[in-house]
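ingest -> fold -> write
write: protein_1
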Amino acid sequence: MRKMTMTLAKAMWVCVAMWFLGAGICFAAGNIDGTDKFAWSSHTGWLNFSPTHGGVTVVRDGANGYLKGFVWAENVGWIKLGAGDGTGPYANTSSSNWGVNMDAAGNLSGYGWSSHVGWINFHPTHGQVAIAPDTGSFDGFAWGENIGWIHFKNAAPQYNVKAVFGHATPASAKPNWMLLK
């Protein structure tokens, strides 16, 4: 009986450790600027692309790329930007391969998902989100059927979402649209 109790206790500790490791992987920090990290929706309020326990990463994959990670919205909770482990680009053809892709010009397309508000389209009719190749600044509008328009950049009041690309990546490894001027 004592041996079974010890085995059960060890198994529980392993499960707890795995959960913490998994949470750390799921909520790893991204490459969004710590100051320029907010988008706005009049129905949900501020959407934080670089929260304390999460974050979005803009991944460059050759000339194209994709987004992965989690956005935090105080009024609706977590919004995930890619299916599974967030490895894109995403086909966006089924419930198992959805996510937000980026073309060579920095234009975003595809979908994010929130269990509270449903799908969020990054290239809806009459809108699209894009990332400026020279600054990493997001601009444009995404659309969620249950939350309306999400705006990524505004002059007054000033807000913006901005990706920070590391200086460690050599220019030759960056697609042409990512080379800083």
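write: protein_2
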Amino acid sequence: MTLSDIIRYRLRHERHIRRIEEARLPTPYGSFRAITYESCVDGRQHVLLMVGTFTPDTPTLVRVHNRCIAGDVFGSGLCACHAHLEGSLKRIAEAGHGAILYLQPEVRTIPLDPRREPPPPPPTPFETVPHAAEHELDLRDYGIGVQSLRDVGIETLRLLTTNPDKVEMLEQYDLTVIEQVSPTPYGEG
């Protein structure tokens, strides 16, 4: 059994999130319901933006989006993050049913160029194993995110992504991805 197997098991069978705040969030595409969740594992906060209500067997349009300051806030041309986020907001609003899971990655600095690898965090005095691989950190982030999706009744997804790795990550936590849909109208990125 590997460390990632243990992480996956615990994130499937134990609750590691708590709701912090809920509000209506007006966007250029309409009003979304926003819930902030806090990870009980590391204190990071993630946001779930939603339109509609959900049941586990009903396919739901979902975007899992990792925060990108350069793209999301400043619309940088270094990445397609802004276009994917905007396209997803628009598609979900038009469908009248869906969610965006906005994950806050574990970073100690604000990355301005999303193509560069962030520096590894400094070791803590209590660390007994080497720093986990980036894939394992993603597994933990996705596991926390899946708990947020399940909290509102989402288990079957039409995933807004062009990245097949996201499909694999979500399916490892027993979500069903029935379709992969481009987050932008042109299918780029």
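write: annotation protein_2
Residues 32 and 154 are 16 Å apart (CA to CA).
DSSP finds five helices and seven strands in the chain.
pipeline exit 0
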